[in-house]
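Bug #77: duplicate submission created two jobs. Keeping one. Sequence:
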Amino acid sequence: MDERLRRAIESRADEMAELTAELIRFPTVNPPGEAYTPCAEYIGNRLLKRGFAVEYIRAEGTPGDTDRYPRTNVIARYEGRAGGPTVHFNSHIDVVEAGDDWTMDPFAGIIRDGRVYGRGACDMKGGLAASIIAAEAFIERYPDFSGAIEISGTADEESGGFGGVAYLAKLGYFSKPRVDHVIIPEPLNKDRVCLGHRGVWWAEIETKGEIAHGSMPFLGDCAVRHMGALIEAFEQELYPALDAKRTQMPVVPPGARRSTMNINAIHGGQTDDFRPGLPSPNVPDRCRLTIDRRFLLEERIDDVKGEVITILERLKRERPKFDYSIADVMEVQPIMTERDAPVVKAVSEAIREIFDREPEYVISPGTYDQKHIARIGNTFDCIAYGPGILDLAHRPDEWVGIHDMVQSAQVMARGLEILLRNKGK
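Kept job's structure:
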């Protein structure tokens, strides 16, 4: 790596930490989608002063978008002196709720003992800050580079990305000829290249019953008991079958190298909002269950759905009055970028130079916005690479290491050298 570029990033360590802290101080909690616009404008104003052309795109009509909570995205583009490929750094600006058990204000952006603390520090405002510093340092060092660099801050990744990357991908912002290589600075550790993610199928299942007086349940039909029978069948049949499935994908952590299914939510009968009133004595005639099924590259989505539907149909035949409905909520295919893709080779070479060791190639257990870049934008030269420890994401006292951000920014800047000055060779 060019020594002047390396030192330029090291000299910006304090600036990078403060930039991360400033981003954390925008409480971009999703849902409902707070502070998106001021956070996007903060990013845009910084990059505008450094010569980037800046666009703000509101994802009107997407889930959650309202005048109170607009889904505001920012895309900044810096054109080189001559034509060439475009490298795009995409980071989501939304964060999950803070939750309890913090020992500090989760939105204060506290810098202490070589770390930046706060909700979103790790996932993924530290990665966003690192990509900004990397791009700025590269442009300063090589003002005559060919091609273009883009940096985006997008909405709603934590809730599926439909008001962010998915919306922008439909408008062509992640497709050729505009974009060639995409790096998503998710927190997968500074010496790892994340090639993709497992697949996901979310579905809502409803069992049906018949309402009656709670003192005479024999006159009705309890939908909750029907759902209990379904959950028991999952326990006895489906979970053991899923646990036996293994993948050749390098998914981390190792426990995610098999098929999994989580029950996200269940509700039936009496609502929990009657307090301080009294419950009503009814037999519940509806019960709803939301499942989160994560599947492997070796599995077909039709088979994944069929495993659940087969159990439902068997219960319908065997259990008196059992009836159900099932509806898809979200469906995403698993994806894995090839190791010989240009962006993979560039970032891998940078990791070797910065850390003097081979990178680890991994697959994320959960999805992120690469799914939209591939399936909508048809851009497959895409990876996740960024600072931070994935296990800290969404937890109390979330943090990102300043030295880790510096080294990740050096990897990103060296990647830009390879892709824009050496043309990926």
